[in-house]
Amino acid sequence: MTDAHRAPHDGAQIAATADVDERATVGSGTRVWHLAQVREQASVGRNCVIGRGAYVGPGVRLGDNVKLQNHALVYEPAELADGVFVGPAAVLTNDEYPRSVTPEGRLKSGDDWTAVGVVVGEGAAIGARAVCVAPVSIGRWALIAAGAVVTREVPDFALMVGVPARRVGWVGRAGAPLVAKDDGRWVCPRTGAEYREDEGRLTELPAA
């Protein structure tokens, strides 16, 4: 560990220029890079990467092996499961009806609105500059394309593109688009793993 880093949070490596609240929890092996901010009561799991300028809001929950790329913004009360990837400058919002002021013109305070969160399932990936508009859930191993705007629930393994985001296919755990076979089956071109589609949902089939 260089002089530019310190480790006050259970074996984490935290850049001297990062702002990690003493009330946050940061797991062993996690790296928090320059100018990142982790707010009070946030929980960051083990072996995560919090990129330069990334933001983790108060009370946000990140699982193990999560990657937030540079300038990703994760607002409370978001919950990210193990292995989630959030690309550069992606945003997970928390205000369903945003306004700076009340109907009377008074600057809003924390008591004037209720934060709602984005929930991201295990292994899912959110591309660069994508926006996930809370409240919304993103399923396990789903892939949100760069620049997409997610406004509704995303099923497991879905490949989502566009504004607003729509499903254009399926992806497997390796992230590659699945190839359709017969009888509603899909196969991963990288791993050979097979999946079955039924009523707009995809499930993994047991290995042969």
Which key terms come to mind for this protein?
single chain, mainly beta, seven-stranded parallel β-sheet, 27 strands, globular, disordered N terminus
What's the topology here?
Elements: E1 5-6, E2 13-15, E3 19-20, E4 25-26, E5 31-32, E6 37-38, E7 43-44, E8 49-50, E9 55-56, E10 61-62, E11 67-68, E12 73-74, E13 79-80, E14 85-86, E15 91-92, E16 118-120, E17 125-126, E18 131-132, E19 136-138, E20 143-144, E21 149-150, E22 158-161, E23 166-170, E24 179-180, E25 185-187, E26 194-198, E27 201-204
- Regarding quaternary structure, what we see is single chain
Structural class: mainly beta
Q: Determine the N-to-C terminus distance.
A: 45 Å
- Using the alpha-carbon principal axes, give the shape: globular
Report strand order across the widest sheet: 1-2-5-8-11-14-17-20-22-23
Evaluate the radius of gyration.
Answer: 19 Å
Description:
The radius of gyration is 19 Å and the shape is globular. The N and C termini lie far apart (45 Å). Strands 1-2-5-8-11-14-17-20-22-23 form a 10-stranded mixed sheet, with no helix packed on it. Mean pLDDT is 94; it is low at 1-8. It has strands spanning 5-6, 13-15, 19-20, 25-26, 31-32, 37-38, 43-44, 49-50, 55-56, 61-62, 67-68, 73-74, 79-80, 85-86, 91-92, 118-120, 125-126, 131-132, 136-138, 143-144, 149-150, 158-161, 166-170, 179-180, 185-187, 194-198, 201-204. Helices cover 0% and strands 33% of the residues. The chain is built from no helices and 27 strands. By secondary structure, the chain is mostly beta strands. A hairpin with a 2-residue loop joins β26 and β27.
